[in-house]
Amino acid sequence: MSEKDETRIFSFEIPDSAIDVYYTPEDFYEEVLALIRGAKTRCKMITLYVGTGDREREMLRALGRECNAPERTLVMDYLRGTRKDHKTGASSVSLCKKEVLHDHTGELIRNPAELKFFCSPMYKGAGRVFLRERQNEVLGVQHMKAIVADDTVLLTGANFGGSYFRDRQDRCLVLRNCPDIAEFVSSVIDAVSSASIDVGEARHGQHHDAPKSKETKRILRENFEKVFDKFKDFNGGKLLALSLLVYLNGRDGSTVGRDSPVPEPKNTKRCIVQVGIQCGYLNMHADQELLWRLLEIMGDGDGSRLVMASGYANPPPGIEGMLASRPIDVIVACPKANSFYKSGGLSQHIPDMYTTMEVDLMKRLTRGTLHEYERPYWTFHAKGIWGYRSVGSTPVGCLVGSSNYGYRARDRDLEMSFLFRTKEGSAFSGKLQKEVDNMMEYSSTVPTPSELITARNIPAWVQTFTRNDLLGMPFYRTYFLVHNEVTNHELRCLVKEMARAVTNNRGVVFSFEDLGWRNLPYFLLKQGYRRKFFYGRWFTMNFGAHPASWNAIEEIGRHNTGILRLSTEKVTPYNNMWKLRYLRTRLGSTFYKPISFYTGTTEKETNMPNEDFSI
Fold it and tell me: Which residues does the UniProt record annotate as the domain PLD phosphodiesterase (predicted)?
């Protein structure tokens, strides 16, 4: 891997009774108001945006004028927060400046809440110049959603406003009197806040432009490192004294190593909570790490299964490979429950694009069942993955957070994800099951997903656009140069079995291709290499982005003596030569990123050339 993986996972143990689950937008709204108004020491909120309706105004007034906490912060995304409502012309920033920074007479509040807007480092280059409002949000956004009120934490995938308070299905978990987790989430919000634009400084009318992407990225990385260092050192320190046992390698600290198991709750009245940051441009990949741990919790029993909910189901290979390892029920929004349904312009085709993605996904998830959520006048935005150990049981684990477990979450957006581990049959497990039951109540099973394309008359150009990855969604491809003496069958068996042994089927997508001499990619020949330098055949194998996949690549290189050279490139899966040629010209030498090279020890490799075959 060209860059160091920076993923950190922190683990806490809390009482099962400390967790409340809310199932309706109305309950979600009432709980948000109650937490803000009841906060005494701190009230920190982070979200993509807030709406511009009456309920949002009441919420913002509560934060700006009614909350007595000395620490009050609201962090939103810069691009989404400055987007204007097409009907009223108002935006999140204009409403917040009015309701949070001013009193009812219009005068500036003496000690106002902090109002911050985070501009993603991905907002750069040509996209920053040419993309218009709303379109520029595809570059990347701040997508975390949470509230910290004193020692209580609200976790949700919903934004604070609009239909999320009325008729949009989402999730809401509240962790009460949990000072350890509250301190962690508060520190994360502070880290994002200090890398953001301070709208309070602009309350007299001056305009703030988006900061330079490199500077934002540097500050954010440094801030997160401070948070991680702060919690890494708490081996029985402040947080441990404040509350409950925090695990280190399953025992007595705040961090859990990648290879360590998820600790088991001591009894049915306890719950293990693990949390991490998902941020592709900082090389943090909590989604895949936590999903891997959820699979470990479930075990390999015949009855183990998954339930996944996502309004936008397009998982990248690393996550898809793990989802494919178990029977799975996938709950998605039907076109009418998609927020882009009957919208204007090109966005009206987004429901058709997701239908195409979902159909293709179910072809690859051979043990999967597709369910579409359709409730009159409601939209669907719930996101999460529930894990079961046996048929007819309640969940033993669940992923919660802002992520949709898709390409955007992996590569472009800033997310925060949580893994809850509980005991089968516990009170909290029953609450998680009720979430699934409520979604299934309004969902219908799609017996033959492939027929949806024809039934919904999806235009051919939409299918082509979606399936050819014209949005530039990357994956990793590994090339192996092998001896002529190694047969195709031997190579398949060696590589496949070794990858399985090393990764335990976590995050690997297998795709073998014998390129041979005649089909050797033109871009290799363009580099000046000639046939005399090659000694054997080229094979490819695609890997997901999970860290275990990279470990597998290294192990294969060390132990499979049939491999002479090994290199890895991050590519975009275009098939047409002109597209590859265009990308090669555009991206230059950074397009290919070799990670390591190994030479075996057998006699037939002794006289092999030592040329570097990487690009």
Answer: 138-164
Query: What's the residue count for the chain?
Result: 615
Residues 140 and 160 grouped into a single domain: yes
Nearest Cα to 59, choosing from 158, 207, 144, 151? 158
Q: How far apart are CA 560 and CA 565, in angstroms?
A: 11
Secondary structure of residue 423 in the 3-state scheme: coil
The residue among 234, 256, 268, 239 whose CA lies nearest residue 181 is 239
Give the separation between CA 446 and CA 159, rounded to whole angstroms: 29
Claim to verify: residue 448 and residue 551 sit in the same structural domain: no
Angle between helices 179-193 and 213-232 (to 10 degrees): 160
Q: Using DSSP, state whether 480 is helix, strand or coil.
A: strand
Let me know: does 109 contact 65? Beta carbons within 8 Å: yes
- pLDDT tens digits for range 242-301: 333 322 233 233 333 333 344 555 555 789 999 999 998 998 989 988 998 898 888 878
Pairing of strands 71-77, 42-46: parallel
Q: What's the Rg (C-alpha) of the chain?
A: 25
- Cα(537)–Cα(557) distance, integer angstroms: 16
> Tokens in use for 519?
């089909």
Residue type, 357: M
Q: Which two tokens stand for residue 270?
A: 């306890």
Residue-wise pLDDT tens digits, 192-221: 999 999 987 654 444 456 667 788 999 999
Tell me the three state secondary structure of residue 472: coil
Domain match, 305 and 223 both: no
Would residue 535 count as lying in a domain? yes
Q: How many Cα atoms occupy the beta-carbon half-sphere of 198 within 13 Å? A: 8
The boundaries of the domain holding residue 374 are 300-388+442-472
Give the angle 164-170-173 at the CA atoms, nearest 5°. Answer: 105
363-390 burial code (b ≥16 CB/10 A, e <16): eebeebbbbbbebeebbbbbbbbbbbbe
Burial of 102 (0-12, 13-18, 19+ CB in 10 A): middle
Rounded to the nearest angstrom, the gap between the alpha carbon of residue 15 and the centroid of all alpha carbons in its chain is 27
Q: Whole-angstrom Cα distance, residue 597 to residue 192?
A: 38
pTM: 0.75
Q: Do 454 and 405 belong together in one domain? A: no
Q: C-alpha 547: how far from its chain's center? A: 15
Residues 46 and 192 sit within 8 Å (Cβ to Cβ): yes
Q: Which amino acid is at 172?
A: C
Pick from 613, 486, 601, 506: nearest CA to 550: 506
Report pLDDT digits (tens) over 503-560.
Answer: 444 444 444 444 443 333 343 444 444 333 333 444 455 544 444 554 555 554 444 4
Q: Cα dist. 247→16, 244, 279, 296, 426 in Å?
A: 17, 10, 24, 17, 21
Q: Amino acid identity, residue 287?
A: D
CATH number at residue 318: 3.30.870.10
Measured between alpha carbons, how far is 2 from 5 in angstroms, rounded to an integer? 9
Q: Give yes or no: residues 95 and 108 share one domain.
A: yes
